[in-house]
Amino acid sequence: MMPVKLTELSPAKINLFLKIINKRKDGYHNIRSGVTLINLFDEVFVEKYSKFEVRYIGKFAPLNNKFDDCIITKFFSDLKLNKPNYRFTIKKNIPVQSGLGSASSNLAAVIRILKKMGHYNNKVQEYGKIGADVPFFVKNSDCLMRGIGDILINQNFPKYYFLLVKPKTNCSTLNMYKYFKIENIKFNIEYDINQISENDYGNDFESYIEENYKEIALILNYLRNLPKVIFASLTGSGSCIFAAFESKKNAEKSFDIFKEKFPNLWFKVVENNFIKNIRI
Fold this sequence. Notes:
Blueprint: E1 6-23, E2 29-48, E3 53-57, H1 71-78, E4 86-91, H2 102-116, H3 124-127, H4 134-139, E5 143-147, E6 151-154, E7 161-166, H5 173-179, H6 205-212, H7 214-224, E8 231-234, E9 241-245, H8 248-261, E10 266-271
Parallel strand pairs: 3-4
Antiparallel strand pairs: 1-2, 2-4, 2-5, 5-6, 7-9, 7-10, 8-9
Helix pairs in contact: 6-7
């Protein structure tokens, strides 16, 4: 018998680096990225209900509590699964259209809940049809990501503390890939190997950001000049950016400095390697 309500945390991710290798004939892009989970979470609740329903609450929820392109509804429709009489309530603590993967993470949390309840046991590859980041969040551990997000190699990344910033600008992943000039990328395919190398740094979208998103470029440059910062970058296709530090103390000092300069933005100190990875 199903408990009155089940709860699952839905973590955000940061792309420590992201390289766009080429564009495929099917329109997708092959990428290479180091992806790490951080301790910023949405919360997913499920309870028995008279019908299937998905609603969003919290700081980053849409005004009508529904997304027109809801990834959870898409999951059931695209994989031709029966929609159960459950209500999924998702508390949005992660900024949307930010490159933090919240929608894919939300779906992975729903999949974890459904598996615990004995529903569905699709192969991970099928989840990639719904969203490129979904297999990563289903795996739920730090990875070197290759292909279109379907090749995942376990990876242990260093411990970092991040000053994570959400500019006012939003970035649509679809539009970022659509307008990004792939001919500007000269990636040496010999470097696309199953382990991290000295060539794995930076985010290829930053060149496009610098030309077309002046607010993000300005803040990113500011982050790179904070004291004791190791590196600063865009995560995913944006719009969130981050500065990485070796200690929480250094990150919190930069938090205070940043707050003086940009008091009206959303920003937060987060970290990776915060818990033992959980697999389903």
